[in-house]
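Per your request, structure below.
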C-alpha cells in the first residue's frame, strides 16, 4: 500500500484511532485481525473492536473503530487512489465478473505490476481493501464491482475512479433490488457514467452508451469470438492457447482481451489462469471422474452454461447434476426456476439432485440442504462420473466438494 500517515488517517476517518507507540504511518489496511502484518491498520467492523489486542499482537501500526465504517474505508481507499499513477479497470456484469477479472489479471501479471481483487472482493468492503493494496509502483489495478441496487456502483466509483469500465453481460440477476432487466441495465450503466472523458467502456453487443466522449468497445461486434476448440481460442484480436475448456469462459476471455488491448498490454501465446475458488474448478474424482465445482452462485443463464459445460466435459460419461435453488431473483424467481427445469430437460443429465424447496421444480431427487445433497451424491456416485455443483451462495454447496473431492473450503 502507498503509505499514509496516522495523522492523515485521523483526518480521513472519524472514530477511535489507537496507534502503536512506534508507528507514524500505515502500510496496509485489514478488517480481519488474522490477516494483519506489521505496519498495517486494523479497521474494526461490527463487533471487530474486541480483536484490537490481537491486531496489535500481530504488529498493527494502529487500530480504528470508525463511526461510519464504510465511509472510513472509502476515504482511506480514495487517499491511496489519489496518490497512484496506475491504470484502473473496473469490471461489473450480471455474470462472469470474477472470471473475467481472473483472466485479465493472468494476462497483465506477466507484463506489468498488477493488483487484482481477491476472490469476490467487490462491495463496500472489498473494493476499498483492493485499492489499499496498491503500491507506488503498481501499474494496473483490476477491480470488481458488485450491484445489489441502484447507486452502489456509482458510490464505489466515487473513490475507485476507473479509467476503463467493463460490463461483461446483462441478465435477470439481483432483481429483488432493481425489479426488471431494464433496472439491471440502469444500475450497470452507472459504471459507464463514472468514467472520465477519454476513458474506455467495454460493453456487450447492443448495449446503449449515451456518451460520445468515450472509446466504446462492444463485445460481439467490435471484438468477437471466432472459434474455441480447446485449448485454442481464436478471437478477432488474437489467437491464444488457454488452459480452460468451458465456452462461457471463452466469452469472458474475449472481454478480458479487449480490456488488455485498452491497457496496451500484449496478449501472450499461452495463457494459464488461476480462477477464484468455487468457480469453474475441474477436480479429479476417484475412478477417473471429474467434479465441476461451480458452487459460488447461480442464475438461469449461468446454470444453463454450466450444464452445457458438463455435457462437453463428460464426453459420453455419466453426468450427475447437483443443482440448488437460486436467490435474489424477486418476482422473477418462479419463472427463473422453471427456466432451469427446461434447460435440464433440453440438455439432459443422467442423475439430478435438487437442493432446496424452490429447486423441487427441477425434478430428480429433492433434498433439503447441502449436507443431504452430499449423502445423496455419495449414494449415486460411480467411477468415471462427471458431477456438476451449482446453486445459490447461501446454500454453501462448496461443502459437497470438500466432502466428495477433498478440496479445501
Amino acid at each position: 500500500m502507498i503509505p499514509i500517515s496516522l495523522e492523515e488517517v485521523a483526518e480521513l476517518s472519524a472514530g477511535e484511532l489507537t496507534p502503536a507507540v512506534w508507528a507514524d504511518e500505515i502500510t496496509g489496511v485489514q478488517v480481519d485481525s488474522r490477516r494483519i502484518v506489521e505496519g498495517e491498520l486494523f479497521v474494526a467492523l461490527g463487533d471487530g473492536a474486541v480483536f484490537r489486542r490481537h491486531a496489535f499482537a500481530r504488529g498493527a501500526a494502529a487500530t480504528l473503530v470508525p463511526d461510519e465504517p464504510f465511509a472510513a474505508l472509502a476515504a482511506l481507499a480514495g487517499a491511496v487512489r489519489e496518490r497512484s499513477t496506475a491504470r484502473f479497470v473496473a469490471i461489473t456484469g450480471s455474470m462472469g465478473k470474477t472470471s473475467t477479472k481472473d483472466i485479465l489479471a493472468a494476462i497483465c501479471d506477466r507484463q506489468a505490476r498488477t493488483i487484482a481483487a481477491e476472490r469476490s472482493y467487490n462491495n463496500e468492503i472489498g473494493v476499498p481493501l483492493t485499492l489499499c493494496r496498491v503500491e507506488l509502483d503498481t501499474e494496473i489495478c483490476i477491480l470488481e464491482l458488485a450491484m445489489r441496487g441502484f447507486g452502489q456502483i456509482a458510490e464505489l466509483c466515487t473513490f475507485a475512479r476507473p479509467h476503463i469500465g467493463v460490463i461483461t453481460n446483462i441478465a435477470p440477476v439481483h432483481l429483488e433490488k432493481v425489479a426488471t432487466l431494464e433496472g439491471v441495465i440502469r444500475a450497470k450503466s452507472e459504471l459507464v457514467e463514472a468514467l472520465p472523458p477519454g476513458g474506455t467502456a467495454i460493453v456487450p453487443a447492443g448495449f446503449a452508451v449515451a456518451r460520445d466522449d468515450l472509446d466504446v468497445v462492444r463485445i460481439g461486434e467490435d471484438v468477437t469470438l471466432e472459434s474455441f476448440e480447446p485449448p485454442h481460442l481464436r478471437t478477432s484480436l488474437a489467437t491464444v492457447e488457454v488452459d480452460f475448456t468451458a465456452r462461457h469462459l471463452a466469452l469472458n476471455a474475449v472481454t478480458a482481451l479487449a480490456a488488455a488491448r485498452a491497457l496496451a498490454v500484449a496478449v501472450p501465446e499461452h495463457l494459464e489462469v488461476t480462477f477464484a475458488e468455487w468457480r469453474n474448478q475441474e477436480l479429479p474424482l476417484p475412478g477417473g471422474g471429474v467434479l465441476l465445482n461451480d458452487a459460488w452462485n447461480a442464475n438461469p443463464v449461468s446454470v444453463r452454461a454450466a450444464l452445457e459445460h458438463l455435457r462437453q466435459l463428460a464426453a459420453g460419461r455419466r453426468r450427475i447434476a447437483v443443482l440448488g435453488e437460486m436467490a435474489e431473483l424477486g418476482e422473477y424467481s418462479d419463472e427463473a426456476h422453471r427456466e432451469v427445469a427446461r434447460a435440464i430437460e433440453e440438455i439432459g443429465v443422467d442423475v439430478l439432485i435438487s437442493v432446496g424447496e424452490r429447486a423441487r421444480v427441477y425434478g430428480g431427487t429433492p433434498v433439503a440442504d447441502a449436507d443431504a445433497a452430499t449423502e445423496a451424491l455419495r449414494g449415486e456416485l460411480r467411477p468415471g462420473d462427471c458431477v456438476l455443483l451449482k446453486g445459490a451462495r447461501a446454500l454453501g454447496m462448496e461443502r459437497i466438494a470438500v466432502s466428495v473431492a477433498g478440496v479445501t473450503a
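The longest strand covers residues 87-92.

Regards,
D.
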